[in-house]
Amino acid sequence: MRKVYLYARFQRFWHWMQALIIFALLFSGMEIHGLFKLMGYEAAFHMHNYFAMGLLAFILLAFFWYITTGDFRQYLTEGNLLDKILLQARYYMNGIFRNEPHPFKKNEISRLNPLQRITYLMLTLVGLPAQIIVGFIYFYFNELVALGMDPALLAPIAYFHTLLAYLLVGFVIMHVYMTTTGHTLTSNIKAMVTGWEEVEDD
Ligand code: HEM
Fold first, then answer.
1. What is d(CA 88, CA 90) in angstroms, rounded to the nearest whole number?
2. Structure confidence by residue, pLDDT tens digits, 88-122
3. Has domain 2-199 been given CATH number 2.60.40.10?
4. 1 within 8 A of 200, measured Cβ to Cβ
5. Where do the structural domains in the chain lie, given as residue ranges?
6. Contact between 105 and 145 (Cβ < 8 Å)
7. So where does this one cross the membrane (predicted)?
8. Quick one: which atom of ligand 1 is closest to the CA of 7?
9. How far does the centroid of ligand 1 lie from the alpha carbon of residue 56, in Å?
């Protein structure tokens, strides 16, 4: 085994801020949705809007960081992506329970397996932007109606925003489970805290 530095300081900061903001958004969103009553609708509404603005600012900052440092290359895959995703999925469904080695070894140039690459890419480029855009349409709904938008769109927009929020809950549960499938139960999480991880020698 050897120790490799996988996550730069900004990346760890961004990751945990993103997690914190998303938990705050899910929590306040659930209260706005009426699932429980804790701080009151008005306070939950304001909290939700402030954290949404914060998330947008952080996402733009993170995009800037990933592009300018070139780290976005970690998300690109050479060769047949589908074959690689299937290989990784088969490992999670089968090989992992037979103690087989991980099909893709981690190193400083390639820290994410193909399934992680596609999942995180979809989340960051499709899921979160869609949720933020729909949220902004919801927030400025009256202004948009004044500009000519059909008021009947309010319900579909609200349902879509809620659907995406539930999908995000699904992602978080799956994501936290998946992070325990590293070399040891906590090795991936430790890497996201310290930046360093022990990986198999090539
Ligand atoms: C709540 C919302 C969360 C979101 C949106 C999120 C998103 C992400 C993303 C995009 C990455 C890839 C970073 C990169 O390598 O470029 C990542 C990695 C990681 N996340 Fe999260 N995360 C969340 C919560 C959590 C939580 C609660 C934990 C642990 C308790 C966690 C643990 C990790 C770990 C260990 C990695 C390293 C790569 C891996 O093992 O998959 N995350 N996360």
1. 5
2. 999 999 999 999 999 999 988 899 999 999 999 99
3. no
4. yes
5. 2-199
6. no
7. 12-30, 50-67, 120-141, 153-177
8. 15
9. 17
